[in-house]
């Protein structure tokens, strides 16, 4: 017999954003079903996404409000400081740096760095314990009709779902976006990000380091130490050919290159594995809503991993949508959809433009651009009020 589910909210996609939204909406008392095409997060699959994500304080607050933070925190590293190092000279030697100290902005930490796999696992476990939330894995949305009063959907396992709101949290290739007729603007930089977990001899002391090399930034984001010692997440952006070359090196040759480029900022890097490449592109949906349908996170906006902004922007979508739905009589009504668009569009456009500009200026090999960037960094490093303003803006406040 075909299953039938009647719910307030049907969320398509159980990546970090879809799961965070499921938990956050359940905490508001909404009835939520999340449908994920891939396997359910489990200890066996948690290692598949080796990326780490720096979640800044406003995003951590959203996860706290969702009730899932207590399960995430034991595996998270507080970020007490953030150092930006300019290496854009004739060789790759550091020329200038600016240190951003959370204490200077009146906080103990800017946020926390988490491993993606264990975080999805913690979110899924939390959702499993909620009466009003449910995750169905290994299942896709097959087709749906959005009517004035509800959405009628059929899943790939035959389940029929009736919901008041359909949410596309299904990532960059969102079928919810495409089939709702929402357009997409997309552009690339001929760059890729290489992600890996690294072990190093010098303690990170909770400070992340972003080294601005010609071609792209080399970023280390600290993780809690384990029995093997101090570890961090690495994101190393380079032009396509260089990124492909680095990814194909054997372990010893890769470590040699990484140690040469990182100039001992965390001592010697002794391990960097496994490595995965992520193409650097920017894309932005031309709208955020269609009838009884809304887009969040990478289904709506995505950009290169520079400055720890992507998932943090998505968590602001999550917080806004959860609050609007909770306070609406009908969470899929036209009024709720237009409020969401009005509240989220300026932040999404500003953040996307800002990251695009930052990435272009960091990767540039034009001497004047590199020197202007260095001068800007130097002024920031020496001017406390400007530094505090930059910290506030970086945190999305
Ligand atoms: C190297 C790297 C480092 C990063 N570091 C940071 C950082 O430090 N800080 C930060 O804020 N951001 C960071 N980001 C960005 C962050 O990782 C992403 O924003 C986030 O992981 C994307 O989450 P998402 O849930 O929007 O999309 P996805 O992870 O793509 O999730 C979409 C989900 O939808 C599912 N799906 C797709 N189609 C269907 C369908 N038809 N039916 C059902 N399910 C479907 C997919 O299986 C997938 O699980 C980084 C990104 C990269 C590449």
Polypeptide structure, described:
The chain is α+β, with helices and mostly antiparallel strands. The strands form three sheets. Strands 1, 2, 8, 9, 10, 11, 17 and 18 form an eight-stranded mixed beta sheet that branches. It starts with a strand and ends with a helix. The chain has eleven helices and 19 strands. The longest helix is centred in the C-terminal third of the chain and has 30 residues, at 334-363. Helices cover 35% and strands 34% of the residues. Flavin-adenine dinucleotide is lined by residues 12-18, 35-38, 51, 53-54, 140-141, 169-171, 175, 193, 195, 221, 235, 278, 297-298, 305, 308-312, 314.
Task: Give a concise summary.
This protein is an alpha+beta fold and 397 residues long. It has helices at residues 16-27, 57-66, 69-72, 116-128, 175-179, 240-248, 251-262, 310-327, 334-363, 367-382, 384-394; strands spanning 4-12, 32-35, 52-56, 77-79, 81-87, 96-101, 111-115, 133-136, 141-146, 151-155, 160-168, 184-200, 207-213, 216-226, 229-239, 269-285, 289-290, 293-295, 301-302.
Gyration radius, in Å = 21 Å
Alpha-beta classification? alpha+beta
Number of helices: 11
**Ligands:** flavin-adenine dinucleotide
Mean pLDDT: 92
Q: Describe the sheet with the most strands.
A: 8 strands, mixed
| Molecular shape | globular
Order of helices and strands: EHEEHHEEEEHEEEEHEEEEHHEEEEHHHH
Alpha-carbon distance between the termini? 50 Å
Low-confidence stretches: none
Helix content: 25-40%
Number of strands: 19
Query: DSSP strand (E) fraction?
Result: 25-35%
List keywords for this structure.
397 residues, eight-stranded mixed sheet, 11 helices, binds flavin-adenine dinucleotide, alpha+beta, 34% strand, 19 strands
